[in-house]
Amino acid sequence: MKILFAGDEHPYSAYALDEVVRLALNTWADVTLLAASPALAAKGSEWAPALPLTHPLIQALKRYREIFLRGAGEDDSPYARRNWQHEWVPLKSGRWEELLVCRGVKKDVRICIRSGDAAQETVAEAREEESDLIVLGCQKGDTCSWESGPQVPQKVVNDAACSVLLVKEQQPINRILACLDQSYISQDSLEMINQMATIHKAQVELIGLSQTGDMKKDVYRRLIEIGDYYEERQIKIVTRLTEVADFEGLLATEVKHDLLALWLGKKSLLDRFFPRDWIGRFVGKCQSSVLVMR
């Protein structure tokens, strides 16, 4: 599994990083910590660019790496930095230099900076590195936003090709509301909800979305199969049906101290029922953490 954490220097990012640590230890994921902003453009000569090392984002990245390594444990952790080796590193103008590099014993933690729009660069990094999951935080309260760009979380959720976990600042997860409206569900997505339920000791409420009281037989059958899958793993499970037309009302009245989990695909009723980019609009006003699975 490859996890991409996208953060800035504000508290909601540090809160989301705790989720990355828990997920990484449960899955032994490859982890990249990313910061992106137009302000991170390197300055200097063409052949010797100079990074703005005192910029708050770069300082935050260094701090996040130390927090991650401490959280992962220093002795028996797969991320412990004890593997020293010489590696050839490409430089400008076709030159190479051999550097002494310290990596994790079994897994490594990359830190990466990109200059440009935070949402666009996050999506680009996930695509280039073939990430399985993007994790980012957002402010507490009635909206999900970033200080530097209020719509960064919405844009990432809309445009990413992989799954996205949006972690709401200081919002506990007691229940996972997993909304199902299609029959194709990947094993990876089932395991992701399993991981989140285990980490937070949360009950899973499986919500089948229907239209005018009707649900396709293959979707209903899949709903029952998924319920059995979680019960076999000793995860508390509740199953119910709701109308897709009532989805926005469900967000407004029920989703509080929860994780809203959404499966998105070509046959999604939600995709057909709501206008384009509906997921970003819903995420923008959601009061809980959100897991979008692709």
Can you give me a brief rundown of this structure?
The protein has 294 residues and is of the alpha/beta class. Helix content is 35%, strand content 29%.
How would you describe the overall organization of this protein?
- The structure is a single chain.
- With 294 residues, the protein is α/β, with parallel strands linked by helices.
- The chain folds into 2 domains: 2-167, HUPs (Rossmann fold); 172-293, Rossmann fold.
- Helices cover 35% and strands 29% of the residues.
- It has 9 helices and 14 strands.
- The protein has helices at residues 11-27, 56-72, 118-129, 152-159, 187-200, 217-232, 247-253, 269-273, 278-284, and strands spanning 2-6, 30-36, 43-44, 49-50, 81-90, 96-104, 109-114, 133-138, 163-168, 175-180, 203-210, 237-243, 258-263, 289-293.
- The chain has a 10-stranded mixed beta sheet, with helices on both faces.
- The longest helix has 17 residues, at 11-27.
- It is globular, with a radius of gyration of 20 Å.
- The mean pLDDT is 83.
